[in-house]
Design goal:
The chain has 131 residues and is mostly helical. Helices cover 48% and strands 8% of the residues. β2 and β3 (63-66) form a beta hairpin.
Length: 131
Amino acid sequence: MSILKLLDGQPDGQASLDAVKQYLAVYYSSGPEWLQRMKALAERAPSTINIFGQKLVTREPGAWRVTEAGRTFLAALERPTAAVPGRTLDDLIDRPLASQFPPLAGSNFRTNDRGGRRGKRRRTARERRSA
């Protein structure tokens, strides 16, 4: 994944093998961000990838070059999974109005009514004292 991503960011999608090694050394030693990005891409990719066998990258004399198939594959991996052309996130979310929810079964909502167990205990205690 790293090689594919690296070549995609190069002018003409091409870099020498030495340049690829140098870039990878810098990326992986610069902090956890690169490694996290590559892990995230790898999780979305098929379990086995052969960049040369699948013709995502070609070997040329003294250099490697990313192919259009490689760029398309990488773009598909980077595309958000919930993306649907022509629709926004708000279109995908169904938001029913509160008035459309059915009432909860057996619920006796009281407002400012000292109900509940605490209120019942207090009433019982008052009744005992007055008796």
